[in-house]
User: Which sequence fits this backbone?
């Protein structure tokens, strides 16, 4: 759980909901609230696009001024204007946060990841099966990048020992 409002994201969210009763850091029930990742319903029932969306992109939780908030991903379908706005926001945030145009850049990686999550959200609302396929693609890309990073780090370590 995050202290203070989460950073602005390219993923569209609903308005935050205040969870009644405030927040007490020592209360074990409230620590575990939302800690369990939501799971998809059994395969014999066809899950709705909202169920799939909440499983793919879990809600954000944070504490602000002693109050506990939760914010779910938007279930509003995207229009052409929303897609154009996403592209503009991505370009603007890349410039604002001074992301490098080439090479390894954690800022650029984070922003493109958010953009891909928003595209997955938009596609899932219209076609849940296609959204799940995009989710698999996203996860595979992340695993491939992690493998390349590990390989790079181990080769650098090997080169340092060899000298």
Assistant:
């Amino acid at each position: 759980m995050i202290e203070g409002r989460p950073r602005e994201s390219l993923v569209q969210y609903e308005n935050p909901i205040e969870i009644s009763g405030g927040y007490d850091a020592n209360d074990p029930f409230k620590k575990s609230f939302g800690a369990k990742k939501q799971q998809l319903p059994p395969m014999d029932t066809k899950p709705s696009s909202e169920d799939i969306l909440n499983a793919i992109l879990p809600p954000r939780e944070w504490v602000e001024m002693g109050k506990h908030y939760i914010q779910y991903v938007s279930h509003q379908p995207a229009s052409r204007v929303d897609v154009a706005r996403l592209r503009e926001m991505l370009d603007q945030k890349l410039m604002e946060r001074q992301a490098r145009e080439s090479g390894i850049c954690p800022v650029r990686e984070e922003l493109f990841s958010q953009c891909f999550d928003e595209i997955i959200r938009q596609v899932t609302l219209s076609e849940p099966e296609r959204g799940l396929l995009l989710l698999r693609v996203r996860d595979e890309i992340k695993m491939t990048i992690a493998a390349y990073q590990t390989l790079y780090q181990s080769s650098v370590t090997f080169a340092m020992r060899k000298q």
Q: What stands out?
A: Residues 23-36 have pLDDT under 50 and may be disordered.
